[in-house]
Amino acid sequence: MPRINAVLSAVTLSVVAPVTAQAPARSDSHVENERDIAVGQPGPHAGDGTTTAYPFFEHAAGLDIVFRKRALHAGASIGEHVNDKDEVYYVLSGRGLLRLQGVEREVGPGDAILTRDGDSHALRQTGDEDLVIFIVYRRPVR
């Protein structure tokens, strides 16, 4: 099974366009489309499977929030980790299993999840379609 997952990861990652390595910072108001910024990635925080990240406004100068869409594909997960900041997930579509402070529950469209600084959480895609979420948090000071 690990071999199959590795092959699927390679296939999925190869069909998603990479984000430009170092786009110039922008200080203007502007529109970004997800098709232009999509990047295939393994599950964050040592998670399983493959995901597609959409790092909106990653190169916006001085923007102090992160606004990201992430699609967790079949069997993918965000690995369990302890937050170093407050963070919000909002489920757009699909189904998932959330572990928050050791307690598991199912999540789906319309669920908003607040994870606080110092709390642990993980999220795994379940069901027949991608689990698609928005993620919002204050950008760490660089």
Automatic annotation (TrEMBL):
<feature type="signal peptide">
    <location>
        <begin position="1"/>
        <end position="23"/>
    </location>
</feature>
<feature type="domain" description="Cupin type-2">
    <location>
        <begin position="72"/>
        <end position="137"/>
    </location>
</feature>
<protein>
    <submittedName>
        <fullName>Mannose-6-phosphate isomerase-like protein (Cupin superfamily)</fullName>
    </submittedName>
</protein>
<dbReference type="InterPro" id="IPR013096">
    <property type="entry name" value="Cupin_2"/>
</dbReference>
<keyword id="KW-0413">Isomerase</keyword>
<dbReference type="Pfam" id="PF07883">
    <property type="entry name" value="Cupin_2"/>
</dbReference>
<dbReference type="InterPro" id="IPR014710">
    <property type="entry name" value="RmlC-like_jellyroll"/>
</dbReference>
<dbReference type="InterPro" id="IPR011051">
    <property type="entry name" value="RmlC_Cupin_sf"/>
</dbReference>
<dbReference type="GO" id="GO:0016853">
    <property type="term" value="F:isomerase activity"/>
</dbReference>
<keyword id="KW-0732">Signal</keyword>
